[in-house]
Amino acid sequence: MPAAGVDAGAGDGRRVRGARRRAALVDAAADLLRSGGPAAVSHRAVAERAGASLSSTTYYFSGLDDLLAAAGERAARHWAEHASSVVRDGLGLGREGTRTLADAVLPTGDDEAIRAHYEHLASAGRLPVLAAAYARERTLLDDEVARLGLPVAPTVAVALVDGGALSALSEGRPVREHVAALLDAALPGTTSGSRP
């Protein structure tokens, strides 16, 4: 029984505020991770981005690896949410079939945004905690890609987009156009207008 004058619900309010504060820190870390890669994520940068005290990052996370793991999981969920909205709503360039696949897997933005995305992914593999977080959450993206009903496994479809994007970036080609052409050639019968 709570002591006289102590609100029993006060503890619940603190837990809710704590959960919100932790979520804000994770979101800030994920934003930094997506925009600047793993090197951009530090306790100080996350606290500044979240508008929180520096001590809050060490209160809610046991160390930088713990913070990076949470940020990696959040970033991966963000990619899956993006893919889901493209597949569900036909967003992106309003194209269907293989072009919807390209729009679902590639990040929103121009070729420089796509370059930053792939540079970040390549550097993430150097950090085991971040690589493990991405590997754990990868199925979310694959599940969204599977909804397109393509004639290949989702992992293969994503690999085609990733490979085409890296090829285009390294050769100075427009990324979305190059990826779309590659997918049309690799997945005949699933071009524009063939969405299930």
Find the count of extended strands (DSSP E, 2+ residues): 0
Order of helices and strands: HHHHHHHHH
Number of helices: 9
- Form type: elongated
Oligomeric form: single chain
CATH topology: Tetracycline Repressor, domain 2
> How many angstroms separate the termini?
59 Å
| Secondary-structure class | mainly alpha
CATH architecture: Orthogonal Bundle
Alpha carbon gyration radius: 20 Å
What is the count of structural domains? 1
**Could you give me the name of the CATH homologous superfamily?**
Tetracycline Repressor, domain 2
Describe it.
This protein is mostly helical and 196 residues long. It has a single domain (10-186), classed as Tetracycline Repressor, domain 2. It contains 9 helices and no strands. The protein has helices spanning 10-36, 43-50, 54-60, 64-89, 98-105, 111-124, 128-146, 154-171, 175-186. Helix 6 (111-124) crosses helix 8 (154-171). The longest helix is centred in the N-terminal third of the chain and has 27 residues, at 10-36.
Which helices and strands occur, and which strands form pairs?
Layout: H1 10-36, H2 43-50, H3 54-60, H4 64-89, H5 98-105, H6 111-124, H7 128-146, H8 154-171, H9 175-186
Task: Compose a concise summary of this entry.
The chain has helices spanning 10-36, 43-50, 54-60, 64-89, 98-105, 111-124, 128-146, 154-171, 175-186. With 196 residues, the protein is an all-alpha fold. Helix 1 (10-36) packs across helix 2 (43-50), helix 5 (98-105) crosses helix 9 and helix 7 (128-146) crosses helix 8 (154-171).
